[in-house]
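tool=predict chain=A
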Amino acid sequence: MTDSSSQTCHTDMRPAADIPSTLKLIDSLRFNAQLGKHSHFFASLKRRNLHILCGVPVVVINLILGSVFFALLQAELPDWGKWLSAGLALLAAALGGVQTFFDFKKNCAGHREVGNDYLGLARECERLLALYDDGLMTLEQLAAELRRLNDEYADINERAEMFIVSPREYEYARQRLATRTQRRG
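tool=predict ok
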């Protein structure tokens, strides 16, 4: 992902040099988890749109071909009708093949699942930072949670390797998150 120490959203108003490294690390982990969430949610949306883009024409073409052939079962089709039917059948088969090969539906669900995992991690980081800010957790207790958070982040990253985010999707998510961060700050 990316280093976000210069883009921290932590509410502690001390100068950056005075902020403990543990806080910086947890805030950086929160930022990266949010970036992962946005990237995978956007990728999920793109895969869903591709699934629909390939799936709907296949259904419509097959309905048309089935209706035409059923209606004209007794009649002789002109040559252009045979060629048109063959072309439509080939197009439907090609779109169905693309849809099967790329498995957009499974990809969409996988990106959504990984995005939700990143969301859970970001929320946990926010919760821990809030507990520290409210004085309900010491810096040592917060530091003890860091290993668990890093392990969870590594597990999510490992699962995310199966669901690739394109550079364009990542950049869109990064810009969107930067815009949100600027509005808050």
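The CA atoms of residues 37 and 116 lie 7 Å apart. The chain is about 80% helix and 0% strand.
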